[in-house]
Write a structure and sequence with these properties.
Helices cover 39% and strands 17% of the residues. It is an alpha/beta fold. It has three domains: 27-126 and 267-308, D-Maltodextrin-Binding Protein, domain 2 (3-Layer(aba) Sandwich), CATH 3.40.190; 128-265 and 327-340, 3-Layer(aba) Sandwich (D-Maltodextrin-Binding Protein, domain 2), CATH 3.40.190; 350-540, Rossmann fold (3-Layer(aba) Sandwich), CATH 3.40.50.410.
């Protein structure tokens, strides 16, 4: 039902010092098995456990290294989002490729019978609830006592224009999906598993709540990086462990609020697959036994700020001991998917994106232009596309192809209930792209920012830059830097997500992404990697 989460490049733009390191720690290097440019899991080897895992578990590597020494079990982690993992397990793609999965929760997988029947032993290793991290000045302005805050109070502050926040994309991120369920359950007042009626009844309040979202992201790491650069964002919605990790070296730490009326908690069950060979099952049992032991549990809570599951092991400092109600997860696949579709196409702020596309003469080499056309066409989906498989309803998509100068600029808006005309228009414009001319990167970026200045409305704005070469024509880097510095605040907050492709200059693109607070995606790995880069960027728009 959802587009598979694609591999993320480890090359981040924006953010320095502790926050950049944190971004890497929190899983910005995520890669999935089906990502063409991602590492492929190896064939099964005795003593090695191949695990499809939530990307935030990158911070568990030191614990897993100790587990290897103690048990002889080496863990090979391949990163995935919950929805992508469910698809791989349900479709059988995980059979023989992975021996286990290790996600924040198996709740979504259990809603799919074809996935649930492939799960064998399931053992929680640690836990972390969804929480709200609030800047100290925002907390003081609101007059909140953290122990008394409810989701309704958060909604009231957001709808009143007194609180803004960032959250990861629920379609592509484990933490985003858990946050969406937490907010929907909390604001619906559901006393049992969420139903369609609950979601429909809460829709007006949910739309007001998501109007306050100022940052979206495909990963918790980039979200933390972007948040550190945005004074207009008051809070983050994420797992408690992520928020406390942000605080580890912060000069002005977030106050972590677990809403009093309940939260969704990640229990990180290490789960063997029924297809795993006997040796892998033994390795899984040995690893699980070690991870639930007192020594590992102490290391887990101290290093990652997740809560231990072993009796007698105290949570790390900063982890509140007071209990919170566990909010109900959707009771059926239809409700969960409907909630995601509603978020994508109705509840969240719409997107405005300018695609700055290199169609210079060099794009004719090795069918580069064909690969670009295929990647963009894939984003238009099909008539039966599910959530996350095409441009969203209400999304404004501008194609700005360039060579020696900007060529014909076309904008399409995907109309709710009638997406066909816009999607067909995008396909037609993509098909007409032709390689010709030099490479005017910086002049074209300036034109993209000016294009965004012509529009209005409340939307997530971004620029996607794809180039296969260095800047050879038009203005240079210095001119662009001055241009960017002169932009008004709203446009200056628009990040550039650049795609490294062909013979493009990594240093040049890194400079652009760091200046604008964007991110660099690597599409140099193979014929399908450009598709993966464009798809992954969707989580940041």
């Amino acid at each position: 039902m959802s587009r598979p989460l694609r591999g993320a490049s480890p090359r981040l733009g924006g953010g320095r010092g502790w926050i950049a390191a944190l971004a890497l720690l929190l899983g910005a290097t995520a890669c999935t098995a089906d990502a063409p440019d991602g590492p492929k899991p190896s064939a099964y080897k005795e003593g090695t456990l191949r695990v499809l895992a939530s990307s935030e578990l990158a911070d568990m590597q030191p614990v897993l290294d100790e587990a290897w020494k103690a048990t002889g079990v080496k863990v090979e982690l391949t990163w995935s989002g919950t929805l992508d993992a469910a698809e791989q397990v349900a479709s059988g793609k995980a059979d023989g490729t992975y021996d286990a999965i290790w996600l924040s929760s198996n709740d979504y997988l259990r809603l799919r019978p074809e996935a649930a029947r492939k799960l064998a032993n399931e053992t929680p290793v640690m836990s972390s609830p969804v929480a709200l991290g609030v800047r100290p000045e925002a907390l003081a302005r609101l007059g909140w006592k953290p122990e008394d805050v409810t989701w309704s109070a958060v909604h009231e502050a957001v709808s009143g224009g007194k609180l803004t926040y960032g959250m990861t994309d629920p379609v592509r991120s484990n933490s985003g999906f858990s946050a969406l369920v937490s907010v929907a359950s909390g604001l619906s007042g559901a006393q049992a598993a969420l139903t369609d009626a609950d979601v429909k009844a809460a829709a007006p309040r949910l739309k007001e709540f998501f109007a306050g979202q100022r940052l979206t992201s495909g990963s918790s790491g980039w979200l933390a990086t972007a948040y550190a650069q945005r004074a207009d964002v008051d809070a983050l919605v994420n797992y408690e462990s992520v928020l406390l990790s942000v605080n580890r070296d912060a000069k002005s730490p977030l106050t972590v609020v677990r809403p009093r009326d309940g939260v969704v908690t990640a229990h990180y069950p290490l789960t063997l697959l029924t297809s795993a060979p006997a040796g892998a099952r033994e390795s899984g049992r040995a690893l699980t036994e070690y991870l639930r032991g007192a020594q590992a549990q102490r290391a887990i809570t101290e290093k990652t700020f997740r809560r231990p599951v072993a009796a007698g092991v105290a949570p790390a400092a900063g982890l509140g001991a007071d209990k919170r109600r566990e909010l109900p997860f959707p009771g059926s696949l239809a409700v969960a998917d409907g909630l995601l579709a509603s978020y994508e196409n109705e509840l969240r702020r719409p997107s405005r994106t300018v695609y700055v596309l290199d169609t210079s003469g060099s794009m004719s080499e090795g069918d580069r232009i064909g690969r670009l056309k295929a990647a963009l066409t894939e984003l238009t989906g099909t008539g039966s596309s599910g959530t996350g498989e095409r441009f969203r309803d209400r999304e404004e998509v501008t194609l700005l192809p360039f060579g020696s100068k900007v060529k014909k600029v076309r904008t399409h808006v995907v109309e709710p209930g009638n997406p066909g005309p816009a999607l067909d228009g995008i396909r037609g414009d993509v098909k007409a792209l032709e390689p010709e001319g030099g490479t005017a990167v910086y002049s074209s970026l300036e034109a993209a920012y000016e294009q965004l200045g012509k529009g209005g409305g409340d939307a997530f704005t971004s620029i996607v830059l794809m180039t296969d070469g260095q800047n050879t024509e038009g203005v240079g880097a210095g001119h662009f830097d001055s241009f960017y510095a002169s932009l008004p605040g709203d446009r200056k907050r628009t990040p550039v997500f650049a795609v490294l492709f062909g013979d493009s200059d990594r240093r040049e693109l890194t400079h652009i992404t760091e200046l604008t607070g964007g991110r660099l995606f690597d599409a140099t790995g193979g014929s399908g990697s450009l598709n993966g880069a464009f798809e992954e960027i969707r989580g940041y728009q």
